[in-house]
Automatic annotation (TrEMBL), chain A:
First and last residue of the signal peptide: 1-26
GO molecular function terms attached to this record: polyamine binding
Stated name of the protein: Putrescine-binding periplasmic protein
Keywords: Periplasm, Signal, Transport
Stated role: Required for the activity of the bacterial periplasmic transport system of putrescine.
Organism encoding this protein: Lichenifustis flavocetrariae
InterPro entries, per the entry: SBP, Sperm_putr-bd
Residue ranges of coiled coil: none
PANTHER family referenced in this protein's UniProt entry, alphabetically: NORSPERMIDINE SENSOR, SPERMIDINE/PUTRESCINE-BINDING PERIPLASMIC PROTEIN
Keyword match Magnesium: no
Recorded family membership: Belongs to the bacterial solute-binding protein PotD/PotF family.
Subcellular location: Periplasm
GO biological process terms, semicolon-separated: polyamine transport
GO cellular component, one term: periplasmic space
UniProtKB/TrEMBL annotation, chain B:
Lineage: Bacteria, Pseudomonadati, Pseudomonadota, Alphaproteobacteria, Hyphomicrobiales
Chief location: membrane
PROSITE patterns: ABC_TM1
Protein origin, superkingdom: Bacteria
UniProt keyword list: Cell membrane, Membrane, Transmembrane, Transmembrane helix, Transport
Classification via PANTHER family: INNER MEMBRANE ABC TRANSPORTER PERMEASE PROTEIN YDCU-RELATED, INNER MEMBRANE ABC TRANSPORTER PERMEASE PROTEIN YDCU-RELATED-RELATED
Protein name (database record): ABC transporter permease
Cellular component, GO annotation: plasma membrane
Keyword Acyltransferase included in the entry's annotation: no
Transmembrane segments: 12-39, 78-102, 114-137, 167-187, 222-243, 264-287
């Protein structure tokens, strides 16, 4: 009996495989390569149902990994997600292809402020995926000083000594410091970098930890009172602890955008374009944001946000807030940052 | 005569897999790192030509504003801190590990087996997870502080984490088995009648420890020291997680060069310098042992 049941099961599995295989052949495959924890499963399911295309997802943890993989030439991915600072590098290295986004259906849905961004003039290579800003969050129960400036983070009051948390990545710490000091990002001016160095060394005795992981946990539990943070993470910390407030400082914030691109080595660029057009529909972009907790660049996507996303003050960036989009720094600037960072921790 | 070459062939064949493993997983990567250390860093990671010794020069000299070279102790300071911390780790492991190994070695055989198994249990869990557990224990709202507060021993949480002490604790914790096991291996072979004989000759406990146990444990201590000191020197997990990333160690400095610093050549050069340090220390200890052995 048992053996028969097994045989039947095997037959069904084989048949199912054949049918599925056939279905995939009809509309083809799509291989997506995205950041870890950054692709909504519901979104993929919806796309597969609507298009009949079979999606395979693979993930990575840094732009450098993505670049190395694409440079090897035979990655086989059709869709990749690249941070704004790396888009010009990817284009220059020739690993992503022109998609001429303005000609795609739904291009008009992109908010005007995100059309033709500095990292991709006329959207030749990419369309926006999600965007966010870097600033800091503060525990309003512990810190009574007014939180409206980056001064609270970089030159904290004495009572906050040993309660400050910063990112573990030198470029992210220094780009926010450059915003505070009113400098342009990626400084190659040695005198200016000396000022950055002095600021960070003055802040160091107040800092409890330099680490980009576990921020939500540290802020929720009160282990740190003031912490450099991305707005999406700050929203998640607030859900645990209502005293956590994300600050939009008067000096401005650092911004970043993740962008959808098609690798030069893509097997099926047509399917990739279908997926991009799918993403440009507000209902789909909203679905994606509900998973990632970051803001969409598509007009009307917010109508499809979950209630906790709709009300999140962290995602409501004031219209007059200055957002500095950090480009990928040239070698000279990276070297200076590395020296400042090493000196800070020697 | 005829058997000699055949025997040699067989020996080579048997040693083949081990040799191959050493070449592929040790010699080859080291050779690649050595070549990389003499190349120029590419702007986005990786290396390119021309060949240069610039990465090594950078270790002790910093380029000033006018491009002249000035002596710079930043990297030497980081190396010194790592060396001190690794030495303290070895010392701490020895102080805990020697009595522990002695205790295990003097139990009955069945008990010994169970105790040795217990020593190896931490290896069943990933080091990252074990290190992170220390964060959960030591943080301000962690178990240790909660117990202290509950007992009324402190009024406010004590900040244990993100200090050199926490890093040292993490290093000692993770390296302790590497000290206990070799010492146990050395002491296990000891004839228990030696202790009885010593007692018969009116030796007190301290004298037995000093004149009997210590000399017998010494080969194990030497092996344990090496197994603890060398990995502790290159550790970057504990300094990063328990030290809060506030001070750089050699390990974290090398890691930084291969990631955010995007300077693979300098990272490779630092690895080579670290290896030279370790080799030097090993050769020195081997030479010392040989020097002691000769007069006897």
């Amino acid at each position: 009996m048992k053996r028969k049941a097994l045989q039947a099961l095997a037959a069904v599995a084989v048949l199912g495989g054949l049918v599925a295989g056939h279905g995939a052949q009809a509309a083809g495959d799509l291989f997506i390569y995205n950041w870890t924890d950054y692709t909504s499963p519901d979104l993929i399911k919806k796309f597969e149902q609507e298009s009949g295309i079979k999606v395979t997802l693979d993930t990575y943890d840094s732009n450098e990994t993505l670049l190395a993989k694409l440079k090897s030439g035979s990655s086989g991915y059709d869709i990749v997600v690249v941070s704004s600072d790396f888009v010009p590098i990817f284009a220059k290295e020739g690993v992503i292809q022109k998609i001429d986004a303005p000609k795609l259906a739904g291009y008009a849905n992109i908010m005007d402020r995100w059309k033709s961004p500095v990292w991709d003039k006329d959207n030749q290579y990419t369309i926006p995926y999600d965007w966010g800003v870097t600033s800091y969050s503060v525990n309003t129960k512990q810190v009574k000083a007014p939180a409206d400036s980056l001064k609270l983070l970089f030159e904290p009051p004495p009572e906050a000594k040993g309660k400050i948390g910063m990112f573990g990545s030198p470029s992210e710490v220094m780009s926010l410091a450059e915003v505070y000091l009113g400098m342009t990002p990626c400084q190659t001016d040695v005198a200016n970098m000396k000022k950055v160095s002095e600021l960070l060394e003055g802040q160091a005795p107040f800092v409890k930890v330099y680490n980009s992981d576990g921020i939500i946990d540290r802020q929720s539990s009160g282990e740190t009172w003031i912490h450099e943070v991305w707005n999406g993470d700050s929203a998640r910390a607030r859900v645990n602890n209502p005293d956590i407030k994300f600050v939009f400082p008067k000096e401005g914030v650092v911004g970043w955008m993740d962008n959808v691109a098609v690798p030069t080595s893509a097997k099926d660029p047509e399917n990739a374009k279908k997926f991009i057009e799918f993403l440009l529909k507000p209902e789909n972009s909203g679905l994606s944001s509900n998973f990632t907790h970051y803001a969409s660049a598509v007009t009307g996507a917010d109508a499809y946000f979950d209630a906790n996303m709709k009300d999140a003050p962290e995602l409501k960036v004031p219209a007059d807030e200055k957002i500095a989009f950090t480009p990928a720094c040239p070698e000279e600037a990276t070297k200076l940052m590395d020296r400042v960072w090493t000196k800070l921790k020697k | 005569m005829a058997a000699q070459p055949r025997f040699r062939d067989r020996a080579l064949l048997l040693a083949g897999p081990a040799l191959l493993t050493i070449v592929i997983f040790m010699v080859l990567p080291m050779a690649i790192a050595l070549v990389y250390s003499f190349m120029t860093a590419s702007p986005y990671g990786g290396v390119e030509k021309p060949y240069t010794a610039g990465a090594y020069v950078r270790f002790v000299y910093d380029r000033d504003l006018d491009d002249s070279l000035v002596f710079d102790t930043t990297y030497l300071q980081i190396f010194a801190r790592s060396l001190i911390l690794a030495a303290l780790t070895s010392l701490g492991c020895l102080l805990i590990g020697l009595p522990m190994a002695w205790y295990v070695a003097t139990r009955r055989p069945v008990q010994r087996q169970i105790l040795v198994l217990l020593v190896t249990i931490p290896f069943w869990t990933n080091l990252l997870i074990r290190t992170y557990c220390w964060v959960l224990l030591l943080r301000d709202q962690g178990l240790v502080n909660n117990v202290l507060l509950w007992l009324g021993l402190t009024k406010a949480p004590i900040t244990f984490l993100y200090s050199d002490g926490a890093v040292l604790l993490g290093l000692i914790y993770s390296s302790l088995p590497f000290m206990v096991l070799p010492i146990y291996g050395a002491l296990e072979k000891m004839d228990p009648r030696l202790v009885e004989a010593a007692y018969d000759l009116y030796a007190d406990r301290w004298a037995i420890m000093r004149k009997l146990v210590w000399p017998l444990a010494k080969p194990g201590v030497a092996a344990g020291n090496l197994l603890v000191f060398v990995p502790a020197l290159g550790a970057f997990l504990q300094p990063d997680i328990l030290g809060g990333g506030k001070k750089l160690m050699i390990g974290s400095l090398i890691q930084q060069q291969f990631t955010t610093g995007r300077n693979w050549a300098f990272g490779a050069a630092l690895s080579m310098i670290l290896m030279a340090f370790v080799l030097g220390a090993m050769m020195w200890s081997a030479w010392r042992r040989a020097a002691i052995a000769v007069p006897v």
